[in-house]
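Quick one, T. Sequence first:
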Amino acid sequence: MSDLKDSLLSQKEAFDAALSKVTDSAAAEQLRVAFLGKKGSLTQVLRGMGQLSAEERPLVGKVANEVRSHMEEILSARISEIKELEKSHKLKREVIDVTIPSSYEGAGARHPLNMAINEICDIFLGLGYSIGEGPEVEYDKYNFELLRIPEGHPSRDTQDTFYITDNILLRTQTSGLQIRTMEKQKPPLKVICPGKVYRSDALDSTHSPVFHQIEGLVVDKGVTMGDLVGSLQLFAKKLFGENTKIRLRPHHFPFTEPSVEVDLTCWSCGGKGCRVCKGEGWIEVLGAGMVHPEVLENCGIDSEVYSGFAFGIGVERTAMGRYGIDDIRLLYENDVRFLKQFK
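Structure tokens:
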């Protein structure tokens, strides 16, 4: 029994001596394993208790518990001291001098689509328009029905879209904002509505399932087709230069009558014919027309008193022409090398 007590006390002395040399968390863990682990030296000594008699075992067990408790307590205290020291050293190493000027990371730039939207909006704001907004997740009645596009209408086929329910979809055009605007405001009104639209188009150099439009709407007494033409001529000259001309071609939109497609002289060749305009000298940019009387009546506006015009501008196509971009996919790939060109 005395030999076992002596071994326990020797373990205590050896542990205390080893602990005085511990200076970091890793060394503290190694010490714990060496003495208190499953194969530690203290554990090995305690296995000898099985050879003791029933009278000797409680006496030696008391000493063993005192030695183990001593080791665990002073080791825990030492680990706490080490952690505080390590924390203090880390704070000193990582101190930040807030008086040192920061390194220059370089300024960003607006995305070309946002640049185009801002330019277009600025032109029409200068003409007295206000800016309207509406939801991208739209009801069928605003996107189609109240614009004279009932269920089964052929024009729905050209606007194949993403339905969420039978009555809710991702809007295919910003024209639905005509209805929302006229429901909330009564004439006279002049508003442009920029926004994102969605169609189930395959992605290629000129098409994207997600793109942007800017819808314009004017409703007042005595509004004529001449007012529409004059507004679009001014828009074209402001955005693409004083020599830019517009061309109107008859078209059909269910929500306008008469309706036109509007072409601009090619921004690349000035109308002479080139690769960009496919030799025609003209590039289609927007659709427009006089608001159909039924659309006015759908919004509670007397079509016998008021008239109006509407137009829809394709932002991507405008941006591509404005900034010489030849592939619509570049606008969505977020390639920093491409975006840096617009600083």
